[in-house]
């Protein structure tokens, strides 16, 4: 077999579909978020505004966070030394897990190397702990949740239509009454910007004897009076069995975690391969995360400013007649509907206007729903927004993207 030709063919296929991914070489400016320097392929540099960062609040630039990380390096060095079971548990990790448990008002928390790993490891492990488990998963759950559920050693799973609680109840009612059940869903769905009905989902779980597992990665830090997420905002944290989150988005660092009853956390800690066999995050990351969480617990005004910026951008885009997709949160998606056009607009924004926003194409979103996904932060000014809207208005004509009833065609 010509292996090289097979790899070349696979790459050519996605290039032909207009969804070959090209990474921008960026260097952020500390203390000047969302500004960055873009290094082009020829080595030339230019200044850009970043519009698609998941560091939603700019905490990766917060001196409180960076100072804590530098202090930890001075105190403990660089790496953690191994897996948590061997030599990779430090006081920084223990302190972070206590902080996370407090954030979500749970008995315990468990730290993972990323949000992806925390979902994959936790969900697959639940099948080990609960023989005969049936998982009911929202159709738009993140790939990490899907991967964890599929890795559950052939365990039974059912997919309910996105945010369709009537369909979920039909599936729950058809399942054996005495079987262990788990409803897995997200609070904020990051590509569409819609939010789950947590109270109604929990009510169904109680009615049919199911546990609940919520992914709050795009909500922690940004919702609720202390930044614990949508479940805190909706006063539902105590009713959720397992809360999963990330340290790599609004908290501005890196890592993932779950928070739950101490017995649940201990069982997952003891059985999850993705925890047992992975080197723990460096102490500096743990220290930075602790500082970020503590800071955001006390600064609700940042969340208020963040929501105001998202609302302001949506209003500007809608006033310009651009096809903003319905969103009830901080995510601002603009529909393009074609992979080639989506990448073209993204490229021109970067090269000609100094605006960085990556195209969102299949398989992240369904074909025909390709989009630009904007994530305004408290640091994005009115002037930045005006420049963005003006560039988009020009490009919608230049790239032959037609506006039909508020939707790109």
Describe what you observe in this structure.
The protein is an alpha/beta fold. The protein has helices at residues 3-16, 63-76, 91-103, 115-129, 143-150, 165-174, 198-207, 230-233, 262-271, 273-276, 283-298, 300-319, 339-353, 382-398, and strands spanning 25-28, 35-39, 45-50, 108-112, 134-138, 156-160, 181-186, 188-189, 194-195, 210-215, 242-246, 256-260, 332-335, 355-356, 359-360, 371-374, 403-404, 407-408. A hairpin with a 6-residue loop joins strand 1 (25-28) and strand 2 (35-39). Helix 4 packs parallel to helix 5 and helix 13 packs across helix 14 (382-398).
Q: How do the strands and helices of this protein lay out in sequence?
A:
Blueprint: H1 3-16, E1 25-28, E2 35-39, E3 45-50, H2 63-76, H3 91-103, E4 108-112, H4 115-129, E5 134-138, H5 143-150, E6 156-160, H6 165-174, E7 181-186, E8 188-189, E9 194-195, H7 198-207, E10 210-215, H8 230-233, E11 242-246, E12 256-260, H9 262-271, H10 273-276, H11 283-298, H12 300-319, E13 332-335, H13 339-353, E14 355-356, E15 359-360, E16 371-374, H14 382-398, E17 403-404, E18 407-408
Parallel strand pairs: 3-14, 5-6, 5-7, 7-10, 10-11
Antiparallel strand pairs: 1-2, 2-3, 4-12, 8-9, 11-12, 13-16, 15-16, 17-18
Described by the principal axes of the CA atoms, the overall outline is globular
Number of separate strands: 18
* Low-pLDDT stretches: 403-409
How many whole angstroms does the radius of gyration measure?
Answer: 22 Å
Main sheet makeup: 7 strands, mixed
| Mean pLDDT over the residues | 95
